[in-house]
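F.,

This is the one I mentioned.
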């Protein structure tokens, strides 16, 4: 008798729970039917074509947000500097429009003051962050315009295009897509976006007078203006600092003619001598096996 009562109670409980579940399911179904927002499948397709780095270089929260802006607000796909031409063309086909080609840019660090050439007035002992170090007595570096070298740009680069070599940030142009994140993070504002086909730069950012500059760095631009005299259309002098106006037009022959006395003006490829040496001298593993 007791067992029968327990079974009846369990059956009734299950029946009540089932009815409640069925009712709630119907309510949810009605809500979805009348209040659901239809999504545009083009947003998902375009999101898949974007690089997915969520670097923020486009000015939006991420690749998904940018894809939505492209579809709904008419944002230009060229706003994503990391998107290659093939993906941009495919996005254009999805939307039924053509996008103008953009100039590829890469980041460059206007500084040559590594640990061997720049003088450190003090030893910084604090948070390993360029912004924190720059705010606290400049991180110990004598030049208040030079690279702090704590690696904030390298750690935050979504594409791993920056390395810290001997206390100096070096950008690998073959990996950089020009998202500009490092430009925003650098407290010294010495990282700039330049045309990807740039051949050479003046790797100095100091606005100090030459006498002051040479006391704290052996690699600073001395403002001799030899480059300006040789190619006045390609260089612009501002006090004790000279800038390359059109770096993509410079050649190795031009630099030999200028013969920068402190070698602060040099080719981009000179920042990677070890890489070049391996590329030219080392044989691929497959070739070595063949020769053996």
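My design for it:
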């Amino acid at each position: 008798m007791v067992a029968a009562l327990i079974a009846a109670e369990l059956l009734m409980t299950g029946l009540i729970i089932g009815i409640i579940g069925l009712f709630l399911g119907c309510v949810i179904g009605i809500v979805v039917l009348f209040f659901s927002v239809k999504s545009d499948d083009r947003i998902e397709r375009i999101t898949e074509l974007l690089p997915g780095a969520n670097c923020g270089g486009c000015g939006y929260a991420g690749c998904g947000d940018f894809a939505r802006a492209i579809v709904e607000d008419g944002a230009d796909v060229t706003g994503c500097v990391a998107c290659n031409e093939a993906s941009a063309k495919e996005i254009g086909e999805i939307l039924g429009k053509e996008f103008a080609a953009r100039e590829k840019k890469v980041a460059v660090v206007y500084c040559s003051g590594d640990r061997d050439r720049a003088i450190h007035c003090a030893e910084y002992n604090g948070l390993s962050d360029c912004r924190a170090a720059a705010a606290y007595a400049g991180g110990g570096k004598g030049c208040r315009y030079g690279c702090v070298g704590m690696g904030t740009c390298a750690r935050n680069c979504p594409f791993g295009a920056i390395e810290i070599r001997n206390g100096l940030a070096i950008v690998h142009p073959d990996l950089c897509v020009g998202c500009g994140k490092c430009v925003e993070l650098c407290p010294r504002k010495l990282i700039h976006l330049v045309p990807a086909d740039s051949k050479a730069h003046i790797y100095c950012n100091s606005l100090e007078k030459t006498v002051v500059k040479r006391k704290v760095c052996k690699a600073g631009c001395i403002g001799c203006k030899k480059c300006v005299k040789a190619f006045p259309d390609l260089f612009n002098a501002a006090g004790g600092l000279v800038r390359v106006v059109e770096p993509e037009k410079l050649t190795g022959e031009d630099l030999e003619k200028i013969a920068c006395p402190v070698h602060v003006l040099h080719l981009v490829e000179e920042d990677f001598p070890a890489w070049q040496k391996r590329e030219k001298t080392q044989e691929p593993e497959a070739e070595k096996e063949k020769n053996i």
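The chain has twelve helices and eight strands.

Talk soon.
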